[in-house]
Amino acid sequence: MAHDHHDDAHRQGHSHGHTDIDWAAMGPVLESSAELFASLYERALGWLAREVTEPGLIVDAGSGPGVVACLFAETFPGARIVAVDGAEPLLERARARAERQGVADRFGTITGELPDALDELDYPADLLWAGRSLHHLGDQRAALAAFARRLAPGGTLALMEGGLPPRYLPRDIGIGRPGLQARIDAVEAEWFTRMRHDLPGHVAETEDWPALLAAAGLKPARSHTFLLDLPAPASDRARAYVIASLSHMRDRLTQALDAEDNATLDRLLDPDDEAGLRRRPDVFVLEAHTVHTAVRAV
């Protein structure tokens, strides 16, 4: 299942309708986090390029600050790219990024909530990418059907959902009880279920993504999992990402963890503690995200 260990918004820059977040202030953090995942995205887009040839229009549904959308522009130099997101400050960053990378002439944005914002597209998409944005929509089945309707005949929907929980530290970190991240996984899974349940129009679904894509009238094609493997010692950017991820998780899940695990997290997040994340040499980033593709009939 998907894990929002850093609420995906913080990790990859999707706004997902959170109205209480200062997106202008969050923008640089989101952009940096997404850039950390660039190698994973590049491999995923290279994989897509082998089955999607010469697309005219590519839509990034839930684009955030446009890191992935600009990678699409680089991977498919003949395509027009449209980034769709609910947060205009993030789309401002996306447009600025496209300008810096010299692709602004074929880069557009649409501000609005998914899936309705896709109605503003001028013509159908040859490739529609939804990178960990679908699980923030209450009725995922209806959203996928809406995505499918925006595809051109023969167009591809690429859905990044699922994978494995992240790992940042060894099982035994020398403080507290070993297995901290495994216990965090269990708490995160409960949090994710509550988050989904509280979404407007929530409908429970079995997370069989190829089956849901088929139910949307598409022909499931392939699924592949891509790894982000940044071994210890972590770079400054990777370390900052881990600190931000665990800080966000600590703020959200304090009551669900026992006193010993909370004390361990406090030490990990203490900038002055020798065993903390800022100083320890064994911090790494290991994450796995799965992409599922499906094609609209010609």
TrEMBL record:
Please name the GO terms of the biological process aspect recorded for this protein, alphabetically. Answer: methylation
Which UniProt keyword terms apply here?
Methyltransferase, Transferase
Q: Name one GO molecular function term.
A: methyltransferase activity
* Pfam families linked: Methyltransf_25
Give me the segments passing through the membrane: none
Q: Does the keyword Transferase apply?
A: yes
Top-level taxon: Bacteria
- Segments forming domain Methyltransferase: 58-155
Q: What name does the UniProt record give this protein?
A: Class I SAM-dependent methyltransferase
